[in-house]
């Protein structure tokens, strides 16, 4: 959930619901509509229409809560100037279908920094900044509020997650291997092994020499989402000092959870680059676009959250609006 002020050309209030890192639902203050974003989620909302109606009502109620809350935060931080401010909440649950283990996260952030979070195991709030200490003391003493949040995310959230996983099983349980490319901007740049189009995101990408995985001279990127629901990632290898006769000993390996792999041996003829070589390198002018796309996705990935279910408080107000 993201509430912002003074951000041009961006909705003041945005809610994004994720299932297995896929955007399943979306709401913003411009459209004022909670919209399913995946085909199977659209079918699920028809089957669980009561859930969807409650979720839509609570989302609109939260819009008013967050709008008031950002003003409270500005007072707490003694901010009187007119400028950009962002208040975010990220909550959700994770369920391991093999061990049945459940993990829950519940955290607030303000202007890009942690403000307060709830430790479900100790049932206490954590205040990383002095401005959050009064809120921590107030909420720590509200045992009913803590109990309701614990039940909501350790029980209700998990129950709905299981239903969604079952409903979207054919999509969520699929395993797609990626296409793997070797990319290099300039002759002196690190060599990038880029894998895209894989699913799920439980995967690894690494360089190895002969049969040994490399840890030195390697920079690993994070896993990022593609627009079609698949994922991409990259890992860089420093080529300085690499002898020509050793190239064939190196390979990039993609490993998907479950054991499937894709391996690409290091070969100069396979490198896609913006510069023209005399030894077989391909000049296609793609590298800036591919890596630029990764940077854009990293920005988009900052605005994420997960909203599940919340009973509407009488008169549409949240009893904990006042910090």
From TrEMBL:
Keywords linked to the UniProt accession: Glycoprotein, Membrane, Transmembrane, Transmembrane helix
Gene Ontology BP annotations: immune response
Domain Ig-like, chain residue ranges per copy: 178-263
KW S-adenosyl-L-methionine (keyword) present: no
Record-annotated membrane-spanning stretches: 284-309
The keyword Amino-acid biosynthesis appears for this protein: no
Name the record gives this protein: Ig-like domain-containing protein
Source organism of this protein record: Salarias fasciatus (Jewelled blenny)
